[in-house]
Amino acid sequence: MLKQLTRPQQKPLSPYFSSGPCKKRPGWTLSQLENALVGRSHRSQAGKEKLLEVITLSKKILQIPEEYKVAIVPGSDTGAMEMAMWSLLGPRGIDVFAWENFSHIWLTDIVQELKLENVRKFVSDYGTIPDLEKTNPEHDVVFAWNGTSSGVRVPNGDWIDDNRKGLTLCDATSAAFAMQLPWKKLDVTTWSWQKTLGGEAAHGMITLSPRAVARLTDHTPAWPMPKIFRMVNKGAVTETLFEGETINTPSLLAVEDALDGLHWAEQIGGLTTLIKRCSENLSVFTEWVEKSTWCTFLAENASIRSESSVCLKITDPDLDPALYPDLAKTIAKKMQDTNVALDCGAYRTAPPGFRFWSGATIDKQDISLALEWLDYFYYETVTDLK
Predict the structure, then answer these.
(1) How many CA atoms lie within 13 A of 298 on its CB side?
(2) In what order do the strands lie in the sheet with 309-314?
(3) Whether 317 and 234 share a structural domain
(4) Measured distance CA(98)–CA(77) in Å, rounded
(5) Helix or strand (DSSP H, E) at 71
(6) Strand, coil or helix: what is 236?
(7) Is residue 14 part of a domain?
(8) Could you give the number of structural domains in the chain?
(9) Which positions of the chain have pLDDT values less than 70?
(10) Distance (Å, rounded) from C-alpha 237 to C-alpha 231?
(11) Cα(144)–Cα(152) distance, rounded to whole angstroms?
């Protein structure tokens, strides 16, 4: 007999579960931006101080080593990763690990746009991860730490050789501020303001180890470098870039919003508390999945399951899998139309199901309530199909 559920009486206080731009911090209002330097030059002393504060606070909260350089760059995380690849790749072989949308994009750019040779491709399906142990320490390595479209994360950095000759280029946009990153294993790390701390979009961050900085001047790319990618001027690293002098004009309104998120993170206990909130959020999903008869994690292996971007797939054994795509879309629309959970459909190229952002700005009580509604809408929708 088909299970019947009572319509839930309570909705989440916040219905925002988008994986980017992500939910603002708890208690955020537009009044937090009243001190933004709108109408001022980002090159004024006050403007540069704001930008430098973003860099300084980010470095402090993320526990980035003092000798690493951090900069604000154009184009969100995408711009930061492209900047890294265009500036640094070429002198060594490259290992690319791809298991979700963006890591596939980096692979495509390396092979088809930069047209680099000696590229080894390690690719796996959504919900899985390639064998990271196959990396060659003589090669540069390009990978995402966390896959927002697949719900899969790198389990640790043990597979990265401490004595490697190549550089590691890590897209960490949905891992920064949500997971502990092994900085000594990472030579280039990128993220964006719009992810874990819920900042406004369009601005990226890049962190360079001393080895990556050395590569900037030791290696000259074989292709013309667009201005927005240049970190070197007349053979020397542009040091002012890492002191708040951005390449292009940033939004000082977005800068103020980024600072608000960073101050909130610092006030609640820094990285330790941010990671704890993400872990607790994942636990809510885990408890729900263990009881579900129709849904499970896209990442079935718990050791690689993301704490910040939870991806779920339909697995109802009594239903024709051909019905899964339309069923998932119908349920996601019901979640949206009732203002229970917005933007919770699976990524467009992922298996049919649902994707919930569960980073530090999300409250676990809201997740619990959203899952009650997910259950309710599933059984309501599937009734006519069985």
Answers:
(1) 31
(2) 295-297, 309-314, 353-357
(3) no
(4) 17
(5) strand 69-74
(6) strand
(7) no
(8) 2
(9) 1-4, 386
(10) 6
(11) 10
Of 212, 245, 267, at which residue does a domain stop?
A: 267
Per DSSP, helices labelled H in the chain are: 45-61, 76-88, 101-108, 210-218, 252-268, 270-291, 324-337, 364-382
DSSP-assigned states of every residue in 191-210? EETTSTT---SSEEEEEE-H
Same domain, 233 and 361: no
Give the tens place of pLDDT for each residue, 9-31.
999 999 999 999 999 999 999 99
Q: How far apart are alpha carbons 238 and 129 in whole angstroms? A: 36
For the chain, helix (H) and strand (E) counts, in that order, are 8, 14
CATH code, domain carrying 69: 3.40.640.10
Q: Which tokens in the block code for residue 73?
A: 């760059």
Distances (CA, A) of 66 to 217, 267, 290: 20, 22, 43
> Range of 46's domain?
39-267
Residue whose structure tokens are 């070429």: 90
Residue of 374, 382, 379, 347 whose CA lies nearest to 152: 347
- The contacts of residue 199 (CB under 8 Å, 6+ apart) are 21, 192, 193, 254, 257, 258, 261
292 and 239 within one domain: no
Among 150, 82, 213, residue whose Cα is nearest residue 349: 150
Kindly state whether residue 12 falls inside one of the protein's structural domains: no
Residues 189-214: pLDDT tens digits?
999 999 999 999 889 999 999 999 99
Q: Are residues 223 and 108 in the same domain?
A: yes
The mean pLDDT value of the chain amounts to: 96
Domain end marker among 267, 291, 325 = 267
Residues 256 and 278 in one domain: no
